[in-house]
């Protein structure tokens, strides 16, 4: 049963990231708040509470859109909001 639940969670995560693929050793930032990394194909972010108006706006982006922010690439990911690479430009 635990395996089936784990498999379901992995499928849901894969669907949520349909257009976004994280890359190993690339720094990411979620909604200009949480820092994220890709390790062994898994995307993980810190869990800070992000209550700024800007973070809320970034969370409510149009899923599936992609854009550039200076030298960083950004994606709107379902159930996460805006995820951007986090390079110093």
From TrEMBL:
Alphabetized UniProt keyword annotations: Signal
Annotated InterPro entries: Pacifastin_dom, Prtase-inh_pacifastin
Database matches in Pfam families: Pacifastin_I
N-terminal signal peptide: 1-18
Residue ranges constituting the Pacifastin domain according to the UniProt record: 21-54
GO molecular function, a single term: peptidase inhibitor activity
Domain of life of the organism encoding this protein: Eukaryota
Designated name of the protein: Pacifastin domain-containing protein
Organism annotation: Aquatica leii
């Amino acid at each position: 049963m635990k395996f089936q639940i784990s498999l379901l969670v992995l499928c849901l995560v894969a669907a949520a990231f349909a257009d976004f693929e994280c890359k190993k050793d690339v720094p990411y930032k979620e909604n200009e708040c949480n820092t994220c990394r890709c390790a062994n194909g898994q995307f993980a972010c810190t869990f800070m509470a992000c209550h700024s108006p800007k973070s809320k706006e970034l969370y409510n982006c149009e899923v599936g859109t992609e854009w550039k922010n200076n030298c960083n690439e950004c994606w709107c990911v379902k159930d996460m909001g805006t995820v951007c690479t986090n390079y110093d430009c």
